[in-house]
Structures are given as structure tokens and as C-alpha cells.
Amino acid sequence: MNAAHGIQSAAWLLVVLPALSAAFLLLMGRRADKWGHLLGAIVPVVLFGYAAMLFFSIKSESGQGRIRDLHLFNWIPVGGFNVDVGFQIDPLSLTFVLLITGVGSLIHIYSVGYMSHDEGRRRFFGYLNLFIAAMLLLVLADNYLTLYVGWEGVGLASYLLIAYYYNRDSAATAAKKAFIANRVGDVGLSIAIMLMFAYLGTTSFNGVFAGAGNLSHGVVTAIALMLLLGACGKSGQFPLQTWLPDAMEGPTPVSALIHAATMVTAGVYLIARSAPLFNLTETGRTVVTIVGAITLLYGCVCAFGQDDLKKVLAYSTVSQIGYMFLAVGLGPGVYAIGILHLVGHGFFKAALFLSAGSVMHAMNDRIDMRRFGGLAKVMPITYGVFVCGYLAIIGFPFATGYFTKDKIIESAFDKGGTSGWILGLAALLGAALTAFYMTRALLMTFHGAKRWEDDVHPHEAPRTMTVPMILLGFLALVGGGALTFGGGLQNWLEPVVGKPEEAGVHTISPTVLLALTLVVVAGGVAGAYLVFGRRPVPVTQPAGSPITVAARRNLYADAFNESVLMRPGQWLVRGLVFFDNKGVDGAVNSVAAGFGGGSGRLRRIQTGFVRSYALSMFAGAAAVLAVLLAVRFS
Amino acid sequence: MLAPYLPIVILFALALGFAVFSAVIATVTGPKRYNKAKLDFYECGIEPTPMSSGPNRFPIKYFLTAMLFIVFDIEIIFLYPYAVANRVLGIFGLVEIFFFIGTVFIAYAYVWRRGGLDWD
Amino acid sequence: MSALTAVPANILAAGTNNGAFVTPSISYAAIAPILIVLAAACVGVLFEAVLPRGQRFYAQVALTLAALLAAFIDVIAIRGHSVVTASRAIAIDGTSLFLQGTILVLGALAVLLLAERGVEPGSAIVAQAAVVVGSPADRRLASSDRVQTEIFPLALFAVGGMLIFPAANNLLLMFVALEVLSLPLYLMAGLSRRRRLLSQEAAIKYFLLGAFASAFFLYGVALLYGYADSANLSDILRAQNTSTQSDTLLYLGFGLLIVGLLFKAGIAPFHSWTPDVYQGSPTPVTAFMASCTKIAAFGAILRVLYVGFSVSSWNWRPIIWTVAIASIAVGAVVGLTQTDVKRILAYSSIAHAGFILMAVLAQNAQGQMDVSGLSSSLFYLAAYGLTTIAAFGMVTLVRDGNGEATHLSQWSGLARRSPLFAVTFTFLLLAFAGIPLTSGFTGKFVVFRAAYHSAAPLVVIALIGSAIAAFFYLRIVVMMFFAEPAEDGPSVVIPSALSSIAITVGTGATLVLGVFPQPLLDLADHAAKLRG
């Protein structure tokens, strides 16, 4: 690893600049209302420019020379053990930096128009810049602990932005849900970090990867699974997926940037970054693929039950990230494909969300697809961008998905054995379902009869919104091809995640598989057209089949969480509170009341009495002595 | 092992015996002539506080005085061990005990100046 | 309440020399910070006696702050000292000095809060404690600027006790220190200007339970004396290798002793007083208790365990395991249902006590107690104390017509009334939750790291506990930012320079120790040395 030099040594600006701008915007107060959003929007553009310069400076190196380390300062030194804060500038982190700042810039510019009527616009841009700072810290960190700082930071920003419309109950609830799911994931990540300390005494990527080879298989698997738990929390993967669709309560640019293009892919980044760890544990990788496969199907099924356009896209995000997990779980050589799909997804999902936002903007913030219809003529630019994203996501020939998603399907089959067949078929089925629900969304929104309410007068969005949309639509269409041209991205990532696997024996010949994929996708499109394109769409939700109902209810994931996780938790809380307040005294009194039959005594089960506190202390002391003596005489 | 403590036990027994003996002999042999004043509370020669409910209420002033007495009483008891060890401790002990008396006087000054010793 | 300097030393000396008195040698330089504070307290009592009422408040505040500052400067001046003095009753070593310095700084910040008169005429302290609640005189005095200024000498006495407590190498002196720090606190808890009945109830509860705990402590000391023939910690340690007495005496004595200490540190199941007392006490006093008392109590626990019982650590580890888990569970889970900000912070302090206690479980490769446990808890204590002072300091600023508004529902929409307040308080809550770039994260990190090798499952439980606890901090944030402000809700009062300094220092330290903790970590590392 080489030290960063020249322009690379200013990489700390990538984090400091947006952090400063966020602090400035949040603390300036109303004085900055007039121009604050402009400052907020310029920052990511400047960062993108710098990141591009970084890219060329790294590109001029070759092989391992492309991995650069920038040591910043010594953060936590404790007893012969140091946590240094440093950045690792390498192809992987740089890919993310470019994605975050690039897509980020476009979405910031879009937001200037989208949020123009919102009085909290300055605050909104403050949060967005905070997010950019935390996300860049996450991907640039050269050790797990600094990564964790960014990890918590993006969580905070995401939380603040989901609850941006805090006077809506649903937004506050969604924010809480996101917070809880993320905390569960964070516990996983922090346990993984603790395991690294305990067994390796370091958290730096280099140190961990170098030492991981000497660890027992069980420990590596434990670390990998805990990392996976963290990744699942952040990326909305099974079983922590339910927060992501609810997170659409945030403003649409947020959904596009954070909950589609960048933050939610942090889990994929974490696993790709930890490639040397996952390479050592077959079990860990298998679990990743299973999580990916389950989630990708789950997302598809739930997506076709939704009438809310943003929810459809959200479930589609869940499902597409499932594809990425599947890819990075397949192991050496396929990591790059996962990242490829991630970048491509960043383009097309951002385009889809921004056009959904444009529709919302035009329809007085209404998002029910049953109330859309026939918008293609009124909003041609939005329609065009949506179609670009649509073609990309279903994998229409030569659009982005064609190059990225199909590769994942191919790799899944190539895994070989029964598991390869299962994963491959799951991915293939996912492609058909994706085509089905995306076609449904396209038809319900832009085609068919007008089903608008009377007070709605849709119109095309202003220039600040359409220009970023067009750029993203263009990227969605050609981005995949450009990135894979001549093995571009895969070769670029090679120093970090390893060589792309040589095409050995294919389970199914690529040509056949390609044809097969196109056939199922066409089947999905045709199916959706038959169901939704030829019949008028009812304005109210029909009863629907049991599957539709289940899909509308997110396959009962919320109900499951409530009955399996929330209720026992509440019981635990109630139990502990009861014991804490009434505790021993209460128990003793109840017993006494039981024996004496005096109902009057039951009334004494009250709280706040010194005697009950004293009694609980006494019981505690007795327990302490009992344990000590038990240990002594055992 | 307990042999050195035997005299203390005997002393306790004697003290207890004397107390029990005195109490018993007084009730057995003493004359019993009650009047109202004898059954009333003793409050330093002034009119007893009227009782509304229950017999156990005294004005706070009594407690204050009693507490102050106990505080100073207990503090000054520390002079005894000092007196016993006076020779061994020498000038060091003398200086320290003056500090000690000084701190007690600070408390005394506080009580006095803030009216702790005034009855009304 | 007096004569700490002379008499106990004599009595203690008597214990180890078969009844013959000897002149103890005392290193006055080493105990000078303690002497300064106690002497100033005596002067404070004299001030009360001689100064006219109008001058007392300012004289007391100046005296108290000057004494704490002087003592702090002296602690710095004698850094590096390592002596056991006064007939081996006091050990002035790195750990004592670190804790003493921390207590002095936090004590001074708490005194700044006590002296705050900008948010309420006459400060948060009652005008005259002996006036019957609700009487005409009480109502008249409530809005006057009179103050029961005795609280300042009381605070100094308490600080004096806290300085001795973690330095006491002899259990009898430790008991004396325990009482010297506790008795003033019992009084201080009852001196609130508003909600006086609640405050007095808190004082009585604290006193009764404290006396109860002291009895445990003293009984434990008696049994240990029976076992080791000495109340000196290093003698007790030696006796564990040589004594022919029954071990039962040792373990019963240890158990009772540790119960008394766990009570002071507010660790479940000996925590039950914490929420009521924290809620009822005047908030500046709560700040004082939650930071300084906790640090002193942990200092004593650390010394007892590391100096007196390090060889029998395998026997007491299960106890520490259990109470640490109980503390984290009770603090994190019961805290969820609380609706009063001060009670929430009280439960948070119970959970934090559990986190700190984990550090003593740290072991080195040979299975002996590891010094990393000591240094990490020193850091955690300092960091937690600073954040706590700032947090309670901020609680005093949210007021309506009835004084402080501490019910959670009254905090709804505060962010809109005072964004700076809400952002700062959120930052402090994030520190309690252990989010990175705050001192709370660094503290948890070093403690967990120390404990991980020898108590991995406990660390996992603690991580889960802190994840749960994060949720109730979040409730406050949600209330402040994401709820509609009430019509006649409270407002945030702008305090005078005193509170502002305390809050700024606490918040600033929380940030600095999160981003750049190295100097304090190094200091704690250097300080982690105990003399027996």
C-alpha cells in the first residue's frame, strides 16, 4: 500500500467540506434561507469535480499502485492499540465516491426545484450535505471503526430525512421503524468489530484481512455473519427489510439518493469491501446468497401489490439490492458484478424516483397510481425518463440492466450444483416478476384513461428538475454498456476485489441463458399488459386474490415482526417495570395477601414506598451473598 | 479466644442486674399516689404542648436542643482517647486536638450566631 | 463532621498496633487538596455564622469556587505522587489523583449550576428549608431572592468526602468518607425551591436507604476485620493468602461491603432510590450527584476490587457479571417507559453504571485483573460525568410558570422554540447513546475493548442494551423535533454566564473527547496505578 500524494492528500476535503456546509446551513438559521440551498447544491458538484481529478490521478497508476492510503490522525490510542483515522483511496472506494457525488449532484440540483415551495428547504439541504459527508466517510474509511462512524452518520441523516415531514404521523413512525431496524443491524456490525479486536487486535482493513487467514473457521464465519447482519439492517434485506418501503415518507429526492442509489447499497459495499473475509468462509457466502435470493423474490412479489408508485419503486429497490447481495455472495470474481449492478442501479433507480417525484410534483403530491393514468402526453419528458429507467431495470437489450442484471443471473447458474440451479432460477424468476410489476407501474401511471381528481392540473416540471432527470435517464440507458465496455469496471476494481473469474464451464450456455432471460422478461411484460393494459384500472382497490392481498400487506412481514418481536419485547418491558416498581415488596405482599386472605393488603401493592425499595435492596444483598457463597463452596 | 472479654461480660451482667433489680424493687416497695401533674408530659417546667391526636408529639424546639447536645457531647468524647494517648502522640497530638476543638467551635459559632440556642 | 484530619488517623493507627498508639506520619503535601476543600468548608460555615445575609451568597459562591480551583491546581501540582500515608489509611496514587481532579472539575461545574440565578430569582435552592411547605411564609419566600446558602459549604463537605473516598486504603476511613459525602447529599437533595414536598420526600428516601446501605457496608467491614485482623485493604489482600480463618467470613464480608458500594454507584438491584432522588432533588444537585458521587463511588469500588480482592477475582466475578447485566437491563428497558426527563436520565445513569462496571472484569492472559479495566473506567467516568453535568444543566433551562418542565410531553416541539437548545441536547443524548464522534462512544469503546477478552457475552449483552437504550434517548429527540409544540408549553430560558459555562464545558468536552480523546486516554493510562 502506498501513501497518498499530490492531489490525493486533500481527500479529507471530501468529508470536511460537506460537513462544514451542513453545520453552516443548520446553524445559520433563517438568515440563510434565501441562498442556503444554492450553497448546499454547489458542494456535491465541487466534490464531484475533485473526485474526477482523483479518478484520473489513480487511473494513471497500475495494479496495487491504485490503492492509496491517506493517514489523517490517531483517534483512539489505548494501551498499545491504535485506531487511526485514515482514508483508503482505491478503485472500489473511488467508484462509490463518484457515484455518490455524481448522482448526488444531480439530485441536489433537482431538489432545488422540487423543494422550491417548502419553507424548510435550507434545513433539507443541510441534512442532505450531512448525509453526503457521512456517506463519503463510510466508503473512504480505511478501517472498520471509522467506517462505523460513517455508518451511524448516514443512519442519522436518513432518520432525519425520513421524518422531514414530521407533522405527518406516518413519517414519524416510519423514521422510528428505520431507526430500530438500523440499530439491530448496527449491533451486528459492532459485534463484528468487537470480534476483530478480540481476535486480531486491529480494525484496519489491511490488518484484518492479513490476519484473518490465521483465525479459526468459526470465528471468521461469526465475523462474516455479524457483518452481514449489519449489511441487512442498512440495506433493507431480509429479515430487516420492512423499514425501507416505509422510508418513502421522506421527500422524493431523498428516496432517490439515500433510499435507492447510495445509502441502502452500503451493505453491498460492506460485503464487497470485506471480500477477503468472505472468501474464507463458504458458510458466510452461502448465507449472503440465501438472504439475497429471498429478498429479491420478496421485493418483487410485494411490489406488484402496491398502488403507491414510490412504494413500488421501494420494493423494487429491496429486490434489486437482493440481486446485489446474491452477486457478492457468489464469491471471488463475482464481487465486481455486484458492484456493477449497484452502480447501474444507482443510475436507473434514481431516474425512476426522480420521474416519480416529478409526477408527484405535478399531481399535488398524490402518489396513488389508481389516480394517475394518461400522463404520458402531459409530461413527455418525465415519461421519457421513466421509460429509460424502465428499460434499464427490466433488462431490455443494450440498456443498463441487460449488462448488469443478466450477468448476475448467469453467475448464479454458474455456481454449479443444486444451489446454483436454485439461485439461478430464483434470479430468473425475479427478472420475470420485475418486468411484470414495472410494466404495471408504467401502464397505470402514464397510459390508459385519465383518472385524476378534479383539482389536479398536471404539468411538466421546471428546468432545474428536468435537466438532472434527462441526464440520469441517459445514464440509465447507456451507463451499463459504458461501464462494461471492454470489461471496464471489472478490470478497474480488480486490485481490490480480485480478478473476474475466467469463463470456465457454464451451466447453461450464455447465449441460451440470454435468450431465456429475454423470453421470461418479455413474458412478464406481456402478462402485465394483458392484465393492466387492456382493461380500465379501477379507481378503488379491488378485493383481489389472496396472493395480491398478501403482497399488499408486504407478505405479512409487519404482522410477523409485531407478533414475534414486538409483543415479547413489550412483555419484557412490562415485566421489568412491574418488578422494578413493585418488585419484591409486591411479591411479598401478594403472598401475604394470598395467605391472609386480606384484600386490603393487595391495595398496598403500590409504587414509591421506601420500604419496598429497602426490601428489594435486601433481596439483592441476599442474592449477592448467596451467589458468593455458592461460588465459594461449589 | 474469648477469655480477654470475660470481664466485660461480667460488667454487663452486673449493670443489667442492677438495673433490673432497681426497677423491680422500686415498683414493689415504692408508694403509689397518682395525680394529674405526674401523668402529664415533662417539658422543662413550662405548660405542656396541647395534644390534638396521639400522645407522642413534642415541639421541634426540644429535638433541636437535644440534637445539638448530642452532637457536641459526642464530639467532645473524642477528647478522652486523646487524653489516654497524650504522651505517645506528643506535640503532634496536641496540635491535632486543637484543630479538632477548633472545628467543633466553628459549628458552635454557627449554631450560636444563627439562633440555634435561642428558645423563642 | 469535623476532625477528619486528626482523629481517624489515630484510631486507625490503633488498630494495627495491638493497642499501642504511635504518632502517624502524614504526608501533608499529598493530602493537601483534601485539606483545602475541607478547610474551605469550615470557613464556609463561619461565613454563615458571621456574614450578614445579603453578602452570604456571593461570598459562598466565590469561596467554594476558589477552594475547588485551588484544590484542582494542587492536584495538578502533585501529579505523579505515589504515597500511602497517615498510617497507610490514604493512598495518593495515579488513580486517586485522576479521580480527585475529575471530581473537583465536575464539582466546580455543578457549583456553577447551583449558583445560577438567571433562570430563577434566588437560584434553584429553597429560600429557607425549615419553613413549612405551603404556609404563607413559604409562599412569600418562594419568589424572594433569599437562598439557603448553607448548600455551598455542604457541597464542599461532600466534595471533601468524595476526594477521600476513592483514596481510602483503609475500610474504616472509607466508611468515614462515605458518611462525609453522603450526609450533606441527603440534605442537599431536600433543598429544592419548587416542588418542595417531592424534594423532601427524595431526601428522606435517600437518607433511609443510604443509612441502610451504610449498615451493610459497616457490617462487611466488621466481618473482614474479623477475617484479616485489619481493615487495611492491602492487609486484607495479604490475609487471603495467609489467613487461617474461614473463607466464609471473607466472602460474607466482601458481599456486604460491595453491596454498600454498589448502592452508592446506583447499580441494580441497589438502584431503586436513583429515579426518585434524581427526580426530586434540585436539578443542579442531581447533576452533582449523578456525576461526582458516581465517580467517587466507582473510585472506591475500583480500589476495593483491585487492591483488596484482586486474588479472589474468580470468586466475585459472577456477582459483577450479574449486577452489570441487571443494571444494563433495568436501565435500558425500564427507561423506555418513563415520561419524565430527569427520570429518563436517572435510568440512563443506571445503565451507564452497568457499562462502567464491566471494565473491572478485564483480565490479562494469565487470568489476573488487567490494568486496562482500570484505565478505561477512569476515562469513561470522566467523560460520562462531563456529559451528565451538561445534560442536567440543560434540563434546568426548560421552564414554565411552575418551574422546570420535565415531563416529556412538555418538551414537544422545543426544537422550534429553541433550535440551539434542541441540537445541543440531542448531541448530549447521542453521547449517552454511544454514537461515534462523541465521548460516549469512546468511553464505551475502551470499556468494551477491555472487557471483551474475558467477558465477551457480557459485551454482546451490553451492545444490545445500548441499542435499546438508544431508543429512549430517541424518544426525547422525537419529542423535541417531531412533535407539535403545545399551546402553553414551556420555553427555554437564557441562563447567566454561570450555567452557560458549565453547559459549554460539558458539551465541548463531550465533543472533544469523541473526536480527539488521545490526551485524556493517555492521562488515564498513566494514572491507572494503584498503591496498596
Report helical residue fraction of chain B. 55-70%
Secondary structure tally: strands of chain B = 0
**Unreliable residue runs of chain B:** none
Mind describing the biggest β-sheet of chain B? none
SS summary, helix count of chain C:
21
Largest sheet of chain C: 3 strands, antiparallel
Mean pLDDT, all residues of chain C: 88
Task: Give the helices and strands, then pairings.
The complex is a heterotrimer of chains A (634), B (120) and C (532).
Chain A: E1 2-3, H1 13-28, H2 36-59, E2 68-78, E3 81-89, H3 91-114, H4 121-140, H5 144-162, H6 169-200, H7 205-212, H8 217-235, H9 243-246, H10 252-261, H11 266-273, H12 275-278, H13 282-303, H14 309-329, H15 335-362, H16 375-378, H17 380-394, H18 400-414, H19 417-446, H20 463-484, H21 488-497, H22 510-533, H23 546-552, H24 557-581, H25 583-596, H26 599-602, H27 610-633
Parallel strand pairs in A: 1-2
Antiparallel strand pairs in A: 2-3
Chain B: H1 6-29, H2 36-39, H3 60-77, H4 79-84, H5 86-113
Chain C: H1 7-16, H2 28-50, H3 53-77, E1 83-85, E2 90-92, H4 94-114, H5 136-142, H6 151-164, H7 171-189, H8 196-228, H9 233-242, H10 247-265, H11 273-280, H12 283-308, H13 313-335, H14 341-358, H15 371-395, E3 398-400, E4 403-404, H16 414-417, H17 419-433, H18 439-452, H19 456-482, E5 491-492, H20 497-515, H21 518-527
Antiparallel strand pairs in C: 1-2, 3-4, 3-5
Helix pairs in contact in C: 2-3, 2-6, 3-4, 3-6, 4-6, 4-12, 4-15, 4-20, 4-21, 6-7, 7-8, 7-12, 8-9, 8-10, 8-11, 10-12, 11-12, 11-14, 12-14, 12-15, 13-14, 13-19, 14-15, 14-19, 15-17, 15-18, 15-20, 15-21, 17-19, 18-20
Describe it.
The complex is a heterotrimer of chains A (634), B (120) and C (532). The radius of gyration of chain A is 27 Å and the shape is globular. Chain A is built from 27 helices and three strands. Chain A is mainly alpha-helical. In chain A, helix 10 runs antiparallel to helix 15 (335-362). Chain A folds into three domains: 1-180 and 244-276, no CATH class; 281-542, no CATH class; 559-633, no CATH class. Helix content of chain A is 71%, strand content 3%. Chain A has a three-stranded mixed β-sheet with strand order 1-2-3. Chain B is mainly alpha-helical and 120 residues long. Helices cover 67% and strands 0% of the residues of chain B. Chain B has helices spanning 6-29, 36-39, 60-77, 79-84, 86-113. The longest helix of chain B is centred in the last third of the chain and has 28 residues, at 86-113. The mean pLDDT of chain B is 81. Chain C is an all-alpha fold and 532 residues long. Chain C has one domain. Chain C has 21 helices and five strands. Chain C has helices spanning 7-16, 28-50, 53-77, 94-114, 136-142, 151-164, 171-189, 196-228, 233-242, 247-265, 273-280, 283-308, 313-335, 341-358, 371-395, 414-417, 419-433, 439-452, 456-482, 497-515, 518-527, and strands at 83-85, 90-92, 398-400, 403-404, 491-492. In chain C, strands 4-3-5 form a three-stranded antiparallel β-sheet, with no helix packed on it. In chain C, strands 1-2 form a two-stranded antiparallel sheet. In chain C, helix 4 (94-114) crosses helix 21, helix 8 (196-228) runs antiparallel to helix 10 (247-265) and helix 15 crosses helix 21. Chains in contact: A-C, B-C. The B-C interface holds B 75, 78, 81-82, 84-85, 88-90, 92-93, 96-97, 99-100, 103-104, 106-107, 109-110, 112-114 and C 1-3, 5-7, 10-11, 20-23, 42, 45-46, 48-50.
